[in-house]
Amino acid sequence: MPKAQSVRPLAIPAISTRLLLTAAGVVIVLLALAYLVAFDQGALSRSGMYMHELMHDGRHLLGVPCH
């Protein structure tokens, strides 16, 4: 009969709070940028479609419909 193997606990590395907050900040900035480029459609530009026209060609290059 084989001997039972002992199970060693996994060593979980500690994640610093600073690294976690930095990563969260980067994710938030990237999501905001994706919103402005792909989904804004001029909603944030109060007078005219300045944001829409500024990002128009970029939307087409990314394959995002904007019409």
From TrEMBL:
The keyword Membrane applies. It holds the Pfam family CbtB. Keywords: Membrane, Transmembrane, Transmembrane helix. The chain crosses the membrane at residues 20-39. InterPro entries: CbtB_put (IPR012667). This is Probable cobalt transporter subunit (CbtB).
